[in-house]
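Structure in, sequence out. Go:
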């Protein structure tokens, strides 16, 4: 039997030491998030269900999205030991400009729906993190307003081509004149994917007032207060609204575009051009031959064609086919800094994330996006240290492989 005694008060003190006290619920919520998945859980409580589902959901059975995420579970890292990893440099060069991480905030439509702070808050975080951010054609902040809000960010403009070609050219010109550096043409959306959660939720733009909406106002008063007390939620470029996002896409997007359209785009845009939504070696080669500076291997986060090919699995064959003729970015299912490092080791120049920062945005506005960026950076840095690699440029196929299952 051990000898028992009464502890002295000084011996109890270490147990009573508390962490930082977060008085504000948002701070508390964000400080408690140790992963992007935690931000996702926090987001779920903050916004109406239809908004969460619009962001979180994908097309049809959501198999594309699930497979994209599962592919990262197949990554097997190959760590080296006894290397000096006291300093890790995550910086790299993306389309000729230094970026502090091999990470780009992807274009996402309707961002002010997730939080009233919207695109400017995402841009501010990107600027502070030193990474690029792409504004969507379906954005809720105009190109000019975004540049005014974040003049020192590396901003790219994402273009959809719709049936009024003159207006498309005019929009691209506007973005270039405003100061956007690169143009992303998204080519995987000739028509809208079937986002069934939106259909089941009756999700429309603007939201329609129904009994369900009224119940939701009671459940998420903060989100509704923000919505009703700030500028009305609308597309910054399109005047067309009414119906679902899919209705809008099907009504105005141009399904006739072909690779020949890249040449007039070249005439319109004198900066780097990125083609987003490439899923095969053949299309990668075709757009690079047509002059693309970079491609994004992407299935739109699983929001378009369900059961489409998995971006991470396309990376090696596409890199082998195009070599260093163009930069390669990959997206879909990236939810941690270690996913980012894995993709770079497997051949990507950088990755894009959509939902990862949108979960942060829904969970806590700009501070939530900042928390997402911080988590991704810390995880990436730790993964590099554990891998025994101190510079992004030293990552290669010897650091990671894809297991069969
Ligand atoms: C809510 C939401 C809206 C999106 N809107 C656009 C868009 O307007 N244009 C575009 O090219 N891609 C859009 N995407 C796709 C993203 O750019 C990106 O390809 C995708 O989110 C990557 O997958 P991840 O969310 O798993 O990171 C959107 C994605 C989400 C989640």
């Amino acid at each position: 039997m051990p000898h028992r005694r009464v502890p002295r008060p000084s011996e109890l003190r270490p147990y009573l030491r508390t962490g930082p006290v977060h008085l504000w619920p948002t701070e508390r919520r964000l400080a408690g998030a140790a992963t992007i998945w935690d931000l996702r859980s926090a987001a779920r409580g903050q916004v109406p269900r239809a908004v969460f589902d619009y962001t979180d959901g994908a097309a049809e059975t959501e198999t594309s999205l699930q497979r994209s995420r599962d592919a990262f579970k197949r990554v097997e890292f190959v760590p080296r030991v006894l290397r000096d990893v006291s300093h890790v440099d995550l910086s790299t060069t993306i389309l000729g400009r230094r970026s502090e991480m091999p990470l780009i905030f992807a274009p996402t439509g309707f961002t002010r729906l997730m939080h009233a702070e919207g695109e400017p808050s995402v841009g501010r975080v990107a600027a502070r993190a030193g990474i690029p951010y792409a504004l969507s054609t379906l954005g809720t902040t105009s190109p000019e307003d975004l540049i005014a809000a974040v003049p020192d960010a590396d901003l790219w403009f994402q273009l959809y081509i719709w049936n009024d070609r003159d207006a498309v050219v005019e929009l691209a010109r506007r973005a270039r004149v405003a100061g956007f550096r690169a143009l992303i043409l998204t080519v995987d959306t000739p028509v809208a994917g079937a986002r069934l959660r939106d259909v089941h939720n009756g999700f429309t733009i603007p939201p329609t007032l129904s009994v369900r909406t009224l119940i939701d106002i009671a459940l998420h008063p903060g989100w509704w207060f923000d919505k009703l007390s700030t500028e009305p939620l609308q597309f910054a470029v399109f005047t067309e609204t009414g119906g679902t996002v899919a209705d809008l896409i099907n009504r105005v997007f141009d399904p006739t575009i072909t690779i020949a359209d890249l040449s007039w785009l070249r005439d319109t845009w004198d900066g780097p051009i990125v083609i987003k939504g490439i899923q095969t070696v053949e299309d990668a080669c075709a757009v690079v031959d047509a002059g693309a500076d970079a491609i994004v291997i992407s299935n739109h986060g699983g929001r378009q064609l369900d059961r489409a090919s998995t971006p991470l699995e396309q990376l090696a064959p596409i890199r082998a086919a195009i070599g260093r003729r163009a930069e390669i970015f990959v997206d879909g299912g990236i939810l941690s800094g270690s996913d980012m490092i894995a993709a770079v080791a497997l051949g990507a120049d950088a990755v894009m994330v959509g939902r990862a920062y949108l979960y942060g945005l829904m969970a806590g506005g700009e501070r939530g996006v900042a928390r997402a960026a911080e988590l991704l950076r810390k995880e990436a840095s730790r993964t590099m240290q554990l891998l025994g690699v101190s510079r992004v440029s030293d990552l290669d196929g010897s650091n990671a492989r894809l297991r069969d299952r």
